Amino acid sequence: MVYVHVPFCRSFCTYCGFYSEIASESALNRYADALIAEAEERRNEITDEVPTLYIGGGTPTVLPLSVLRRIVEAIGKGPYEEFTLEANPEDIVEKGEEYAAGLLALGVNRVSMGIQSFDDGVLRKMNRRHNAERAVDGFHILRRAGFRNLSIDLIFGSSWISDSCWEKTLDMAMGLSPEHISCYQLSVDEGSALAEMEAAGRYSALPDELCRKQYDLLCSRLSREGYIHYEISNFARPGFEAVHNSAYWRRVPYVGLGPAAHSFDGSSRRWNSSNPVHWSPSFETLSPEEERLETIMLGLRTAEGLPEQWLRSSVQADVDNFLKEGLLSRSGGNLRIPEDRFFVSDDIIRELV
Ligand code: SF4
After folding, report:
1. Is residue 321 over pLDDT 80?
2. 9 lines ligand 1 (CB under 6 A)
3. pLDDT band of 328, cuts 50, 70, 90
4. From ligand 1's centre to the CA of 290, what distance in Å?
């Protein structure tokens, strides 16, 4: 299970607090050289226990096919059960059918497209590069190229997004019929342009009850359309749940390559620093307490939940009270947070641990 971080974007989204840079072509090649060197150096860590490769960012589609090919060949281990590439719709439209076919030939079998909204006014406020029409065009280019597993990202819960605008975005999303949808509530992240706007009084967050209304609308609409709500922010057609991300939530070891990537070997984490060409690692061993908290926080975000006996013995709180109040429910031998309480899962987990 390998994650590759591509730290480049062609512009910066208003809400983004991630590390990324705007790069020249020579910087892209120097980055690829450094990434290939890291893959070589860490070859013995790369196993095929969960045979997935995920190239995320930043914006991986700023990379030309030739650079992507060098990286994928250096990592080796393919073909992968799941090989996901995060894509910006504008890059797909600009680079066209040939690029899409080239991705498929590289072994990419799942594309996660950052659409975020189908409302042009909202997309402008977010400073996204594409508009709604280009997002639809990009999606169709990938379909025509032969991709059978497409995911789209959407954002809800902002004062920029009215209920009717959110409904329109969901209608448009359903019109595309993607196999997978990831949907995140807009947060004001430290270091983002949005945080500055908020501090200057030019943005105010949407009240919680209105965010909840949009989340409920999302859940009911996607359930009617046959999607499985398998994690707080993730919905899939049956059989299209993300293999790579699902393994993260079960705390399966993975290798993260590239600047700002992290890795997990089952007990300790490696954090790469952020420099796009000369990154270096630092290490942290998790204490049993940190492992317990992480297992609970990740496991209870999923519809699968956690084994009942393990959870009972791992928390101080009276689990029976949580069951009585409907804050937890049984599913097989597991306990989970019911879907209608997913929105307040952070509060439930806080009380539980
Ligand atoms: S949200 Fe994604 S595309 Fe936008 S600036 Fe951040 S990393 Fe780049």
Report:
1. yes
2. yes
3. very high
4. 29
* CATH 3.20.20.70 corresponds to the domain 2-248: yes
Specify whether the backbone of 266 is left (phi greater than 0), alpha (psi in -120 to 50) or beta.
left
Average pLDDT of span 47-69? 93
pLDDT at 155 over 90: yes
CA–centroid distance, residue 259 to ligand 1 (Å): 15
Calculate how far, in angstroms, residue 329's C-alpha sits from the geometric centre of ligand 1: 36
- Where are the CATH 3.20.20.70 domain residues in the chain? 2-248
Res 20 pLDDT > 80? no
Please check whether residue 23 is in contact with residue 11, taking contact to mean a CB–CB distance below 8 angstroms. no
Res. 225 pLDDT band, cuts 50 70 90? very high
Query: Residue 197 Cα, ligand 1 centroid: separation in angstroms?
Result: 17
62 close to ligand 1 (CB < 6 Angstrom)? no
Is the pLDDT at 216 greater than 90? The verdict is yes
Q: Which of 9, 112, 115 to mutate to test the pocket of ligand 1 (most atoms within 8 A of CB)?
A: 9
Q: Is the peptide bond before 60 cis (omega within 30 degrees of 0)?
A: no
The whole-angstrom separation of Cα 219 and Cα 228 is: 9
